[in-house]
Amino acid sequence: MSKLSENTIELSLIDQLVSQGYTYFNGTDISPIGSTPQRESFSSVLLEKHFKESLKKLNPTLPESARLEAYQKVINLGTEDIMENNERFHTLLTNGVTVEYTKEGRTKGINVKLLDAENPDNNSFWAVNQLVVKENNNEKRFDVVIYVNGLPLVFIELKSATSEKATIRKAYTQIQNYKKSVPSIFYYNAICVISDGIDAKTSSVSAPFTRFLSWKTPKEVANDVRTELQILTEYMLDKKVLVELIRYCTVFEKEEKKDDKTSIISQVKIKKVGAYHQYYAVQKAVKQTLRATNSKDGDRKVGVVWHTQGSGKSLSMVFYSGQIITHPQMENPTIVMLTDRNDLDDQLFGTFGNCVGLLRQTPVQANNREHIKELLKVSGGGVIFT
After folding, report:
1. How far apart are CA 23 and CA 115, in angstroms?
2. Please, which residues bridge with residue 117 across strands?
3. Confidence band, pLDDT 50/70/90 cuts, at residue 166
4. C-beta neighbour count of 256 within 10 angstroms
5. What distance in Å separates the CA atoms of residue 61 and residue 59, rounded to the nearest whole number?
6. Residue 222: CB partners within 8 Å, gap ≥ 6?
7. CA angle 34-38-39, nearest 5°?
8. For residues 201 and 221, what is the distance between their CA atoms, to the nearest angstrom?
């Protein structure tokens, strides 16, 4: 039996991605000195040439000046803080880039799309291995980076399961080291994946190791004997799933952090990406909502989602609400969050209040019966807690 080396794992992953419709490039070939250059310099983490082409493809009717302004906003996020830039970029990626356009003496704001969430196949998906980035006098070579429309959205760090020292924990540690030495690629990161070729786990760029979880098969798929990496690649890195995870199942929150040495408490920004069970539950709930509210034959009965304690039900509610509110088939829905305890109402309201970016509106908490009656008098729209 041949040794399962890191190179073998890397090539096997790329083969699977290609079979799922990804386009493969070796990092050397698309480097500034490669045969088909896509990067302007070795410090570039975007594929500038392809990104510009994608902007034109996604926004064919907009003037070139608008696309160029959007491009400049993406490559100049304004800070040197990973999490601040990551949130700024995520907002641009999911909501589009608003730029001003002057025509016939009138100035108006227009939206430039970076990602087509409604038609995932309208985006380009490239798997790039052995990508070399030079930054702050550091030179690093990355295993696999998934580029969507020229943007480095998924970072995959691989180790070999046959080496006792090269554990999945070491893969996580390697990403933390990269964040310090070449931080700019993580400004644009949506999801991180760590694997030893057999086990594979995924989470956000800010997540501790304990938050990195496996991605499992849908419930209807039983007895899948493949490795965790193969399952994650097929189901989470499926084009549609990946785009929906980024667009509808990603939020930013602030948490208090206590310094062990000084005991000083500060607020830190964290990013949360839905786990497999949250994604599957939300997508099923959205599907049933669209069926049940269909004006022709909908029965108005959506259903119930059962949760275990600690499964992240509050965020599942946020992900569901965000997708329903922005769904083109839903006409400005009103969402009412009804709880049976005041402390639970406050807790849930706080969670939703932290996720205004996804909800695109500020939730409201009803004070009493008369207040909720007033809030519900609107023809549609709003997230109401009571």
Report:
1. 17
2. none
3. confident
4. 8
5. 6
6. none
7. 90
8. 19
CA atoms of 298 and 41, how far apart (whole Å): 55
From start to end of the chain, where are the E strands?
A: 23-26, 97-103, 106-112, 125-135, 138-148, 151-158, 191-195, 200-203, 250-258, 265-273, 335-337, 364-365, 383-385
Between CA 274 and CA 25 the distance in angstroms is 29
pLDDT at 1 over 60: no
Does the pLDDT value for residue 269 go beyond 70?
yes
The CB-side HSE value for 232 (13 A sphere, CA atoms) comes to 24
**Against a cut of 0.85, is the pTM above it?**
yes
Residue with tokens 């909800």: 359
| pLDDT grade for 294, boundaries at 50, 70 and 90 | confident
Q: Report, as an integer, the average pLDDT of 5-16.
A: 91
Give CA–CA dist 364/289, Å, rounded: 22
Residue pointed to by tokens 């209807």? 220
